[in-house]
C-alpha cells in the first residue's frame, strides 16, 4: 500500500462483525477497506476443537444479506461449516478485505485517524473496531508453579483427546468451552476432573421446542443492555452452557459425575504443591440448576399467557449431590497428566492510542465512542444479548453504519432516540432472563 493512502472508513477486523459492517457500509455507498491480520474466520478455524459446533440453532445465523442457507435450520453447524458460512459471506458481498495485514497502532491524525499497519500507514476519516474482546488467552499465574510433567494448554489450543498424554485430564472452568471440552474428553473415555465455576446452564429442549426458540419469541436476544436489570454489569457474565453436539442436548454436570467425572469447586491456588479447591461446588451446581429452572418457569408463563398448546414437562431435579466440601490434592499423585485452562480471554487494546477505555473496555453508546468517528462492533452485549452473535451483529452494524454515513456525507447526525430499530425489543412485561433466574 502507498504511505499516503487514504480511506473514508477503515474497518479493523475481518470476522463476522467486520463483514457485517462492510455489508452495511456498501448498502450506504460508503467507501471503505477492511484490515484482517489473519484470515477470514480465523478464530473459528484455529481456536475451536475438532468436534465443535454451534450451541445456538442454525436459523440464528442471520448475517445481513446472508441468512443460513442450508436445509437444517434447527441443526447446529460444525466448525468447518461455520467457516464456510463466513467465507461464503465475504465472497457474496465482495468485502474489500486485506488478509494478513495487522494493524500495529491506531491514533489521531488531525480530525481523522492514522492507521499504522505492517504494510505501511494509511489515514482515515473514520474507523470501526471489529476485533471482538477476546484477544489473549487468560491463564492463572499458578500454572507456572505446577509440575513440569503436566502438559498445559488453553482451551483455544485444544483440538481432541488424542493430543493429550495418557492419564487423567483436569479442565479448569465450566463455561461453554470448559463444559463441552470436558464432555468431549469424557465421551472418549478419559478420566476427567472438572473445576466448576459460577456459569449458568440452559435447557436444550423444553416443552417441545429448543429453548433458544422460546427465548427468541420472548425477545431475550433483543433486550437492550440499558433495560437489563444488571445494566452494564451483564457484560461480564458467563454465557449459559449447553451443546449442539449430536443434534443438541443439555449438559448436566451431575450426570457426568454419576458416570465417573470428578467435579471440584473453584480452584483457589497451590499450597505446598497441592491444588486447593473451594467448598462452593454444591453452591455452583445449585445456582446453575436454578437458572435452568428459572428459564423453564419463564417459558411456562409465556405458554400460559399466550394460550400456546405445548406438551408438559417437569422441571429439572438433581440426579447427584456432592459429598465433599473444600479439598486439596497433589495433581501428579492423582494421576493428572494434562490440564486444559478453559479460563477465558483478556482484551488487549494497547495498540489503540486513544482515550476511549475504562477498565480495559471501550466507552461507547451502541457502538459509538466519545472519539468522533471511532466505533466498535461485535462486542458481547454491545447493545443486546445478540450483539456478539450471528443473530444480532447485523443490527448493530446497521445502526453504526447510519451514523458513519451521516458523518461521511457531512449531514447532521440523527439523534439516537429517533433512530429506528431493524427489529425492536418488544419488552414483554415481567419476562426477562435476569428476572427468571434472580
UniProtKB/TrEMBL annotation:
Pfam families: Pyr_redox_3
InterPro entries hit by this protein: Auxin_biosynth/cation_transpt, CHP04046_FMN-dependent, FAD/NAD-bd_sf
Keyword terms of this UniProt record: Oxidoreductase
Superkingdom of the organism of origin: Bacteria
SUPFAM superfamilies, A to Z: FAD/NAD(P)-binding domain
Keyword set includes Isomerase: no
Protein name listed in UniProt: MSMEG_0569 family flavin-dependent oxidoreductase
UniProt organism field: Flaviflagellibacter deserti
